[in-house]
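Usage

Read records sequentially. Each one opens with the input sequence:
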Amino acid sequence: MTQLANEIGKFDLTNNDAFGKPGQPADVPAIISLSRPIRLFCQRCVEWTQDISNTACDPIFREVARELLVVSHSYIGSVDRFATELMRQLENALSRPQGGQTIIDPCLKIDSPDVTRLDAAVKKLEAQI
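and closes with the structure output:
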């Protein structure tokens, strides 16, 4: 989880010139550069999910493993919503007549997963071992 938190910390979407200031064009190379840490974050989440899913574990650990998957899916869902919303904004901007001003608001909100059930599963496991 620390590695995922470190990846989140690399995102800098506020005050970023990649998308251009109001009335200014976007900087395509900067958008590509900005997308790399987001892609890496998604890749790490998917790898983490696969690692958890593919790990053979004793039945006593299964509940904790299931709850870890819920946490990883929360992060993946956050990025998926960002991508969907950004694509919607871009498609709307591209469908408008040229010459008008279009504001695109790239806002990546990483949801903090609810770890209540994970904490409970870990406490239950601690009591069993």
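Summary fields computed downstream for this record:
- Residues 2-128 form one domain.
- The two ends are 23 Å apart (CA to CA).
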